Amino acid sequence: MKTFSIGGIHPAENKLSAHQTIQVASLPKQAIVMLGQSLGAPSTPIVAKGDKVKVGTLLATPTGFVSANVHSPVSGTVAKIDNVVDASGYKKAAIFIDVEGDEWEESIDRSSDLVKEITLSKEEILARVKDCGIVGLGGATFPSHIKLAPPPGSKAEVLIINAVECEPYLTSDHQLMLEKGEQILVGVSILMKAIDVNRAVIGIENNKPDAIKHMQKLATEYSGIEICPLKVQYPQGGEKQLIDATIGRQVPSGALPIAVGAVVQNVGTAYAIYEAVQKNKPLFERIITVTGKSVARPSNFLARIGTPFSELIAQAGGLPEDTGKIIGGGPMMGKALVSIDVPMTKGSSGLLIMPTLESQRAKMNNCIRCAKCVSACPMGLEPFLLSKLAGNAIWDSAEKNHIMDCIECGSCSYTCPSGRPLLDYIRLGKGKVGGIIRARNAK
Amino acid sequence: MDYTAIFVLGIIGALAAVILFVAAQKFKVVEDPRIDEVEATLPGANCGGCGYPGCRGFASACVSASSLDGMLCPVGGNATMAKIAGVLGMEAVVAEPKVAVVRCNGSCLNRPKVNTFDGAKSCAIAASLYGGETGCAFGCLGFGDCVNVCNFGAIFINPETGLPEVDEEKCTSCGACVKACPKLIIELRKKGPKGRRVFVSCVNKDKGAVARKACSVACIGCGKCAKECQFEAIKIENNVAYIDYEKCRLCRKCVEACPTGAIHEIGFPARKPKTEEPKESSVEKKITLTKE
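YS: structure for the whole thing
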């Protein structure tokens, strides 16, 4: 079975919420819509306090090139535009909407009928994706309309759909494939038309045999779409790892996937694009896994953006008494939340509640030069060296050792028998070296 | 006895000596001898506080500079600068001595923790990840990046408050801690006459109520101090007051006006107790600070 060629680890899968049907989460009393929900600059609000909005009403428009539209996830009145503590503890601007009923914009097709025929042209698709504020739903939240318009001079040859869901615990993509397989395949066909390719590969890890079987059966009716079962290996969902695993091409250091003719999109994004293009539905809700060993009912919710995490936790059976950490995202790449009152954003793929004992870090000891981190690194880097260089502020050497290639997957820290916080230091180094490179390029 | 070996080695030696002599003449680097003289007067801490790479870098910069205006070895201070001026035959420019000031009073008592950071113990790492262990995303993180960079042992974390404190005797105002602090809390301020100075010990830019909720001694940007100040030394920007040490005349009216006790006075003799003292506790705290 295929997988990527360098490094990788296999943490315990713990897919507790697998095969839980997607439940529609109840509407919040007040939705808190963050203005900075995608990579790049926060969007600029176009509504004001007191304005009436419907579900799908445009709330904010892009600021600059890398930025996306933000739509209202609820109907009601704009209560205020104010700063709110986000998942990282910093205060960021958000639009607060008091929810009244659930009235949708008329332009949205709310029927559940499958629309197979793609009537829009390539340009119209891109415009629609931009208008609907679609961003990469795998977690990086890069605005999709930019990713689908490759830089001049490069040509996409193959579309790769990321359905590996390599993060432990998370099951939202798995369940989405089981329930909305047809829609996803139409979404993939739309993406193929948008980037003008006739081949698409959907990579699925073989811990989801039912999804592989289901998608393989459906895909026979769609031309050019193949399903590629992959060996379970973290971080297979990384763009470069997935390209290596599915089509066997290696993206060079510092280059984008388009350099080897590939465009990678998440399976959730493909579904959002189906809804945007065929149903004219902006991105204002998504599937989110709420899970954890001590959670009463690990679930997959279809929840509106702006719903406070606390309300989702309540619907999954409430916050367990022994909670050490609450992580936004999966356990490998997710970040611990400072508060559960923070709202869900377009990038929220999961919510993991960990008991105290499990959430604690191992005690840090000296490096024993076992080189496990080197074997685990999927980018072929030397994490022990990079962390030392970053810790001692030797930035030029860190750059020469390709610190900027790090994808922050955390395999090194996970595998270290001495419990060293390798990624903490490498992430610090990436920030510093990135700043130095930007300053140099600006000159 | 065969003298060939001695003879051959002698010739090789002589040849090498000639080559070395010629090379030394040809590649000779003429360096101003005054650089060595100036360097000898410098403390040799190589801290970089002057803005040049090490003491020798500063010495050569002094020699090539047209005047000593703006050149200061913060470690040696004015005495060293006077010596340098003597060596170079230039006029010494007296600079006001400065000292590092930590502008956060968010001790565990004043600013309760709301979460725990269990990553690598470094302010830079914590700051790049999130806002910190308390409700205030602007204040001191307390992991001691400033302590680690200080070459003079002049800054230390007080275990009781969890905040860094500056030893004024040892601080040379080299500015290493200022650069190391990711929250930009530490500032170099004028030492002031008799070491007296007044400053706002807070950099929280949140609105008043939010800042106060996170920390009981936060500056809430109410502006009472600015109204009280007769010298226009206080500015409120982004919900936080800042006292311009060039304009401040140390009248201490702002200290009394501050409702949260965010403005600190240091180096003053203890105040005479008043008959009606509304904020006795905060005054007491300030007095203990002055004793440090």
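YS: worth flagging: The longest strand of chain B covers residues 98-102.
IM: good catch. Also Residues 276-292 of chain B have pLDDT under 50 and may be disordered.
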